[in-house]
Design a protein that fits this description.
Elements: H1 6-41, E1 44-54, E2 59-69, E3 72-81, E4 86-95, H2 103-112, E5 129-139, E6 142-151, H3 153-158, E7 161-165, E8 181-185, H4 189-199, H5 203-218, E9 226-230
Length: 232
C-alpha cells in the first residue's frame, strides 16, 4: 500500500522555511544587532562653551561650560568680578535619559540655531562685551570642532553690517564706489545661540547664576573663590 506523501511534503516545507528564516537571521538581524552594539559601545563626547568678557561693569568675565560624555551631562558657570572674586556654580551630573534639561538636547538646539555654521564677526555695535563660543563633538572615531567670536548679538540680529560687491573690469580698473551694490548682513542666530546658553539648565541652576551675578555686583575687594552647587 503506497505511503501518504502529505506528511513528507509538510516536513520538507517546514525545513525549507526554517532554513530561509535562519538565512534572514544571519544576513539581516545579526549585522543589524552588531552595528547597534557598536554604536552603543562607541564613545560619545559633546562639549559647548561660551566665554563672555566685559570691558566695564562689576563682572569682568563669565564662562558657561556644558558637556555630555557617554550619556552623562555636566554643566558649570563661572563668573569673575572686577575685584578678583570668582564664583563657580556646578550643576549636579545628569544622565542623558533622565527627565529634565540635559546637554544632549541643548547641543541639538544649539546646532539647529547655527553653532556649527556661524563665522567670527569683527567688533560692531556695543563693543564693550566680547563673546567667544566653542563647540566640539566626538562620536566613535569621528570628531570636529568650531570656534567663533563676535560682539553685540542684538546688533547682528537687528542692524548687521554691509557686504559690498565689487566687480573689477579691464575698462574700469577703479570701481565707482557710489554705484557699488551691497547686502545687509543681518544674522539673528548669534543672539539665539547666546540665549540658548543663558536659558539652559533647571530653574535652580539659573537662579544661582542670577544670585552670583547680583552678589558680584555688590562685593568689594575680597578675592576668595566661591563654589556653589545647584540641585535641581
Amino acid at each position: 500500500m503506497p505511503r501518504n506523501p502529505v506528511p513528507l511534503l509538510v516536513l520538507l516545507a517546514v525545513l525549507i522555511a526554517a532554513g530561509g528564516s535562519y538565512f534572514v537571521f544571519l544576513t539581516t538581524v545579526v549585522p543589524r544587532s552588531t552595528n547597534t552594539h557598536e554604536v552603543l559601545a562607541s564613545r560619545s563626547d559633546l562639549e559647548l562653551a561660551m566665554r563672555v568678557r566685559h570691558d566695564a561693569g562689576p563682572i569682568s568675565e563669565e564662562d558657561y561650560a556644558m558637556s555630555d560624555v557617554d550619556g552623562l551631562s555636566k554643566s558649570t558657570y563661572r563668573a569673575i568680578g572686577r575685584s578678583g572674586v570668582q564664583i563657580t556654580i556646578v550643576e549636579r551630573p545628569r544622565q542623558t535619559l533622565e527627565d529634565g534639561p540635559n546637554v544632549a538636547f541643548f547641543f541639538q538646539q544649539a546646532v539647529a540655531d547655527g553653532v556649527w555654521d556661524l563665522p567670527s564677526r569683527p567688533p560692531r555695535g556695543d563693543r564693550s562685551t566680547h563673546y567667544e563660543i566653542d563647540v566640539y563633538q566626538l562620536l566613535g572615531n569621528q570628531h570636529g570642532s568650531h570656534r567663533f567670536t563676535f560682539t553685540d548679538p542684538q546688533y547682528w540680529a537687528t542692524t548687521g553690517g554691509h557686504q559690498f560687491h565689487i566687480v573689477l573690469e579691464k575698462s574700469k580698473p577703479i570701481p565707482d564706489i557710489l554705484k557699488l551694490s551691497s547686502t545687509t548682513l543681518i544674522e539673528p542666530r548669534y543672539e539665539k545661540v547666546v540665549d540658548d546658553f543663558r536659558a539652559f539648565g533647571p530653574q535652580s541652576f539659573r537662579n544661582k547664576i542670577a544670585a552670583a551675578q547680583t552678589q558680584l555686583g555688590a562685593i568689594g575687594g575680597h578675592a576668595a573663590p566661591i563654589l556653589l552647587k545647584a540641585h535641581g
